Amino acid sequence: xxxxxxxxxxxxxxIEDGRGNIVMQIRDPKRYSWSGAALPGGxxxxxxxxxxxxxxxxKEETGxxxxxxxxxxxxxxxxxxxxxxxxxxxxxxxxxGDLRSTEEGEVRWVAREKVVHMDLAYDMLNLLRVFExxxxxxxxxxxxxxxxxxxxxx
Length: 154
What we know:
Largest sheet: 6 strands, mixed
Number of domains: 1
Number of helices: 2
Cofactor: Mg(2+)
Shape: globular
Structural class: mainly beta
Number of strands: 11
Helix content: 10-25%
Radius of gyration: 15 Å
Strand content: 35-45%
Domain Nudix hydrolase: 6-132
Protein name: MutT/nudix family protein
CATH architecture: Alpha-Beta Complex
Low-confidence stretches: 145-150
InterPro entries: NUDIX_hydrolase-like_dom_sf, NUDIX_hydrolase_dom
Distance between the termini: 28 Å
GO molecular function: hydrolase activity, acting on acid anhydrides, in phosphorus-containing anhydrides; metal ion binding
CATH superfamily: Nucleoside Triphosphate Pyrophosphohydrolase
């Protein structure tokens, strides 16, 4: 029995400024199927390290150079093509540079308590729990439901 499977590797990073604000990216619904406010991140390129990839993605999408990102968990599910989709979740408050928006979307600092009032990308509140709660390290969507949403398991 083969243990290999088609896999898509991605990352996401919670960036904090030490004053209660986090970086949020407003993703354009015309450009992305997963649109709304989300944390920056993206795909891991072939032959690229995991930490290297999150540093690169954050730089490309926000203009910030992050340092010492800490892996805090992961989100994963199976696509309709039966590929496993993995999102490595990182967190840091160590960064340099000035925040700037790109074609990927507008980026801005948002007070953490105001995030719940934003038009968030699907499941961002569940994802934030993995970033912030020490007893959680995984968000796994085991099954796709009829309305195309997924049922999550912790």
